[in-house]
Amino acid sequence: MKILVTGGAGYIGSHTVAQLCADGYEVAVLDNLYTSCEESIVRLRKITGKDIPLHKADIRVQENVRKVLRDEKIEAIIHFAAYSLVGESMTNPLKYYENNLYGTKQLLEAMIEEKVNKIVFSSTAATYGEPKSIPILETDETNPTNPYGETKLSMEKMFKWTASAHGVRFVSLRYFNACGAHESGTIGEAHNPETHLIPIILQAAAGVRKSISVYGADYPTRDGTCVRDYIHVSDLAKAHVAAVKYLLDGGKSDIFNLGTETGTTVKEVIDAAEKITGKDIKVLYGGRRAGDPAVLTASNKKAREILGWKPEKTMDDIISSAWKWHSKNPYGYKK
Ligand code: UFG
Fold first, then answer.
1. How many A from CA of 196 to the centre of ligand 1?
2. How many CA within 13 A on the CB side of residue 226?
3. C-alpha dist (Å) from residue 155 to 127, 130, 134, 161
4. Which atom of ligand 1 lies at the shortest distance from residue 226's CA?
5. Secondary structure class of 61 (helix, strand, coil)
6. What's the pLDDT tens digit per position in 29-66?
7. Which of 75, 196, 210, 226 is 20 to 30 Å from 30 by CA-CA measure?
8. Which ligand 1 atom is at minimum distance from the Cα of 227?
């Protein structure tokens, strides 16, 4: 039983590859390495003891994808390969349409041609936009406020219509704030440029940057800073494996939120980081960042009931695993 992971060298992709291997699946990775690097696969081979093949290819080149599906005898796909920076998507939307939408269309055509009919898709809470009520349910309205969320929502719709026309079954997983790192400390979050809260806080703790700027302390929340639903990447990885199993067992196409249902403020994350690292973190308070809703938390009831998945890691687990990764690798995968 072999699973193809597109974008498997990236942050959530690499943790999912580790989990698939731990659960006894054969895995192949397809990645163009534009926003990730081969070093993560080298390290994955060491952690798992498995010979994970890496196909350096782009999903937009359909013939290459078809060849990988044929040569590796792929049974199901987990699709992470996409651009994922909200800010960049605002300034360069067509880059997102080209890679995320055209790329997924090419991948789906390759699947249909090669008779691979199961796919798990890496979606996002950004498909909802500004929520009308909290916690967010899968049935809530979707009104993305940026091209990143818009392309992910369009990708979900592409799966829906392809499912009804060609019998492809899909599971779309809408994650909230992915964070944390593998327990080994050898793979973790490495974006360039880094924009996410927890890596920035830990870079400040490690002295790689001088301070952290909090974007707004005047929100209508318990301490004035934004509330988010932080979910450990290892919990996300387990959900992807549960979704693959669900499809292999004949489950029907569906969409699930992946979050903890627990909201944590920016200040609370900083406090947890100071406690766990034992470092003083210099905090600067600035204005709000455009487009940031005050509160985003998920209902995960549907994933618990249908996929039999539930998050297990706490905020302390998130910070301590991320700290282990950042302390060993302050510049990510760069030597
Ligand atoms: N924040 C700061 N300072 C920083 C960085 C972030 O105060 O330097 C705050 C943000 O304002 C926000 C919180 O920390 O309140 C989390 O911000 P992130 O940038 O880490 O994450 P977002 O909630 O903005 O984005 C996440 C995912 C996106 C996804 C989005 C869905 O990273 O991929 O949720 O709403 F699109």
1. 6
2. 23
3. 10, 20, 25, 10
4. 15
5. coil
6. 999 999 999 999 999 999 999 999 999 999 999 999 99
7. 196
8. 15
| Interval 103-159: pLDDT, tens | 999 999 999 999 999 999 999 999 999 999 999 999 999 999 999 999 999 999 999
CB 86 within 8 A of CB 148: yes
Separation of alpha carbons 139 and 124, rounded Å? 14
**148 catalytic, yes or no?**
yes
CA 215 to ligand 1 center in whole angstroms: 9
Angle between helices 197-206 and 266-277 (to 10 degrees): 40
The three-state secondary structure class of 232 is strand
Q: Is 226's C-beta closer than 6 angstroms to any atom of ligand 1?
A: yes
The answer, yes or no, to whether any atom of ligand 1 lies below 6 A from the CB of 179, is: no
Strands 227-228 and 264-265: antiparallel
Instruction: Measure 283 CA to ligand 1 centroid, in angstroms.
Output: 16
3-state secondary structure of 208: coil
Among the listed residues 96, 148, 175, 246, the single catalytic one is 148
Q: Both tokens of residue 136?
A: 């967010």
Q: Which runs of E-coded beta strand occur in the chain?
A: 2-6, 26-31, 54-56, 74-79, 118-124, 169-175, 177-179, 212-215, 227-228, 230-232, 254-258, 264-265, 283-286
Alpha helical stretches, state H, 227-329: 233-248, 266-277, 301-302, 315-328
Let me know: does 260 contact 223? Beta carbons within 8 Å.
no
Using alpha carbons only, how large is the chain's radius of gyration in Å? 19
Nearest CA to ligand 1 atom 19: 196
Contacts of 76 (CB under 8 A, 6+ apart): 3, 4, 116, 118, 119, 120, 244, 247, 248
CA of 58 to the centre of ligand 1 (A): 28
**Amino acid found at 273:** A
- β-pairing verdict for 26-31 and 54-56: parallel
Report residue 196 as tokens: 């996410």
0.90 surpassed by pTM: yes
